[in-house]
Amino acid sequence: MFTSTPRSLHGERPVEQLQTTVMRAELAALIDRMTVVDGAHQTAIPRLLLARASQMQHPVHAIHEPAFCVLAQGSKRVLLGEDVYIYDSSQYLVVAQNLPVSGQVVDASPEAPYLGLRLSFDVKDIAALGLDLQLDAALPNRRSPRGIFTGDLSTTLLDPLLRLTRLLDTPEDVPALAPLITREILYRLLKAPDGWRLAQMAMVDSHSQRIAQAISVLSQRFQQALRVEDLADEVHMSVSSLHQHFKAVTAMSPLQFQKQLRLQESRRIMISENVDAATAGHRVGYESQSQFNREYSRFFGSPPARDVKRLRELELGRGGQT
Prior knowledge:
- It holds the Pfam family HTH_18.
- The chain is α+β, with helices and mostly antiparallel strands and 322 residues long.
- It has two domains: 13-202, Jelly Rolls; 205-322, Homeodomain-like (Arc Repressor Mutant, subunit A).
- Helix content is 50%, strand content 18%.
- The chain has 13 helices and ten strands.
- The chain has helices at residues 13-34, 123-133, 135-138, 155-166, 174-191, 195-202, 207-221, 228-234, 239-250, 254-273, 277-283, 289-300, 304-317, and strands at residues 39-42, 48-53, 60-64, 67-73, 75-80, 83-87, 91-95, 99-107, 114-120, 148-152.
- Strands 1-2-9-4-7-10 form a six-stranded antiparallel sheet. The protein has a four-stranded antiparallel sheet with strand order 3-8-5-6.
- β5 (75-80) and β6 form a beta hairpin.
- The longest helix is centred in the N-terminal third of the chain and has 22 residues, at 13-34.
- It starts with 12 loop residues before the first helix and ends in a 5-residue tail after the last helix.
C-alpha cells in the first residue's frame, strides 16, 4: 500500500511547501471552474481529461491505459490484483501499462469535491524521450517494476501541469504548446526518483517491454483459450521467466489477467448492449455458464443480473453522468 508521507520542515522545506500549496490551490480552482458537473470531462487537449465527484463512489473497474494522474483535491483508492494504492493531492499516480484496475473516489463532498486530471501518454513517447536522454545506459539493473506506482507531487511537476491546464482558456494555443508541455511533464517524470520504472516499460528488449507485448496479445485475444507456452514463445521468453516478470509488472498471472479482461468486457457488453449473462459470457470466451456466473460473482461481488441492475440504477441516479 502506498500512502502520503509528511515532509520534514528543515532548510527551505517550508518555502517549498508554501509554493506547492499555492500551486495545488490554483490547479483545484482551474479544474473546479472547468468541471461544473460531476463526471469525466474531455478537453481541447486530446490526452487531457478532467474529473469531478461530489461524493464517495462505488469502485469502478476498467482497463487503465498508460497515464499520469493527479488530484488537486480529494483522494482515491486504486486496486491492482491484491495491491492497494491510495493517493491524494500530495502524490501522483502513474500507470505505465494497460492494466485491469479498480478505482474508487474515497474523499469527496459537495463542499470539497474530488478534483483531478489524467494525462494519457503513448509508451512510444517515453521510448523516444528516453532515447534522446540515453536513459537505457543509465537504467539500474533491477527486476521488472510494477506497472503502476505513486510519487511525491513536487513544484517541478505542478508547474508544467498548471501551464498545460491554463491552455484550456486559450484553445488557439493548444496545437503549438500542448505537445511541448506534455513532453516536459514526461521528462520530469523520467527524472523523478521512480522514473526508471516508467523508462523500463519503453526500453527495447527489456523484460518490462516484453511483458507489454504479452499484455497486448492478451488484450487482443482474451476470448481465446490461453496456452501460456504459446504466449511465452510469442514474446521470446521462457515460461518461467514470463510468469515471474508478468506477475512483477501486473501483480497477477497471465491466466488471472485474462480472466479479469473477460469479466470486465462481459460487464461492458451487458450494460451497453443490453444482452443477458449467458450471451455475454459466451462472447468473452466462457463455455460454462455456471463457471462464468461463479467467477463474475466472486470478482464483482454479486451475480451478473443483479450487478448490472444496480449499475443501471446508479447511472439513472446520476442523471446519465459518467
